[in-house]
Amino acid sequence: MAIQRPKGTQDLLPGTIEQWHYLEETIRRVCRDYGYEEIRTPIFEATELFQRGVGQTTDIVKKEMYTFLDKGDRSMTLRPEGTASVCRAYVEDKLYGQPLPVKLYYQGPMFRYERPQSGRFRQFHQFGVEVLGADQPLVDAEVICLVWDLYQRLGLSGLEVHLNSVGCPTCRAAHREQLHKFLEERKSELCQDCQERYERNPLRILDCKNPHCQAVTEGAPTTLDTLCDGCRSHFDNVLSLLSGAGVSYKVNPRLVRGLDYYTKTAFEVMVEEIGAQSAICGGGRYDGLVEEIGGPATPGIGFAMGLERVLAALQVQGKFPEAKPKLFAMLVALGDKAQNEGFALMNALRGKGIPVQMDLLGRSLKAQMKAADREGAEFALILGEEELERQVLLLRDLTSGEQTEVPLPKAIEVVYSKYQRGV
Ligand code: ATP
Ligand code: MG
Helix, strand, coil % (nearest 5) of the chain? Predict the structure, then answer.
């Protein structure tokens, strides 16, 4: 039997890959405009990085990682997300020596062992940014504005930005106490996972997707109820900056990022039309993370966006720009001699940066002309035995049907000047 690709992975084929290019290029342009530079980290890292940087109690580390021993018996993991790697690089490559804040972005494949379904894959792609070395509300607002702006440029609508503050370790301790008190009598009604969370990480109970747990925790104290003065004013500031920038958002006190090193702002962007997996972007502040993985105390904030889900939204909303034909001219050669001469001419034209192709299968004139049409070529450059004899090239304008003869030695010059007029 023919070998198939692994479950939860995709082949991105010509026809759709143009959509990826469009999205990736738009992302690059936004990042450049906002002063973010690209970072590329390894696809696999020491497992410990994610255990510490994502957290032992998260779904990702508990059940979703592709972990293996390499031939040197080291435990390695295919990266399930990008933030931990960027923070590791920040420390290892001493990026803190640069003017702060360091503003980075990445794009690339991530790997999680999940149940494949619509919008959920085992190999998927994220675009993310991380800002390291700045704790001002301005940064939180800039990062969210970048996401918003990207969606504007892509022409997406119907998006909701959900925002919350999970506070700092000080106000979280107060919240934990109140939450414990609230859940004390209801604990037994929670799902198995949440019963575990009750001891280790009760904040995450608020985030449980189980409808029963959601009912049990209805009316539970939220982190917003217990914010200290510093965290409160940080949050208010972020909200007012976002309002000033025209970003519409919704404060959602149940949105949490539950690890100790997640602090203050947490946010998510949802779009309903793409089905159950409606979160297209998630992010927040992580002022304790760099220290957690062994670096100097450094505030940080970032987000990660699922590109398959953004593409799904673009598809549903019909927002892809029309594809432009890529081919300028098709070189149509007939007979061995003309083929040789034509091949040389095609290469000379390519050398000038003109998109030209020729038939590679030795097909008939009719088939070659059909291919020229199909590829959207503007001109057919026709060279048969007879033209070769007379040292001319037939230049047919495929839009108007008009055909002219050009002396072969002048062909490059003439085609080049037509090409330039078109660009
Ligand atoms: P979810 O609740 O959907 O599992 P998550 O909290 O695990 O999301 P993050 O780790 O915050 O997601 O990743 C950021 C974004 O990456 C998500 O909002 C989503 O768009 C995308 N994403 C996460 N997991 C997958 C996956 N398995 N397949 C496709 N996209 C994904
Ligand atoms: Mg997940």
Answer: 45, 20, 35
Spatial contact of 282 and 303, defined as CB atoms under 8 Å apart: yes
- Ligand that comes closest to the CA of residue 114: 1
C-beta of residue 166 within 8 angstroms of C-beta of residue 256: yes
The residue whose CA is least distant from atom 12 of ligand 1 is 282
Q: Are 303 and 128 in contact (CB under 8 A)?
A: yes
Instruction: For residue 91, give the H/E element and its range.
Output: helix 83-92
Could you read off the pLDDT of 375-405 as tens digits, one per residue? 999 999 999 999 999 999 999 999 999 999 9
Residues linked to residue 144 through DSSP beta bridges, in sequence order: none
Is 156 near ligand 1, meaning CB less than 6 Å away?
A: no
Domains observed in the chain: 17-168+228-317 (3.30.930.10), 329-422 (3.40.50.800)
Q: 192, 184, 182: which is closest to 222 by C-alpha?
A: 182
The atom number, within ligand 1, closest to the CA of 304 reads 14
262 is in an annotated binding site: yes
- 82 among annotated binding-site residues: yes
Q: Is 36 annotated as a binding residue?
A: no
CA–centroid distance, residue 282 to ligand 1 (Å): 8
User: pLDDT of 178-211, one tens digit each?
Assistant: 999 999 989 899 999 898 889 888 898 988 888 9
The answer to whether 383 and 367 are in contact (CB under 8 A) is no
CA distance 112 to 127: 16
SS3 letters across 192-210: HHHHHHHHHCHHHHHHCCC
Q: Locate the ligand 1 atom nearest the alpha carbon of residue 119 and give its number.
A: 29
Structure tokens at 400: 């108007």
Q: How far apart are CA 383 and CA 342, in angstroms?
A: 7
Residue type, 385: E
DSSP string, 277-332: --EEEEEEE-TTHHHHTTS----EEEEEEEHHHHHHHHHHTT-PPPPPP--SEEEE
pTM of the predicted model as reported, rounded to 2 decimal places? 0.93
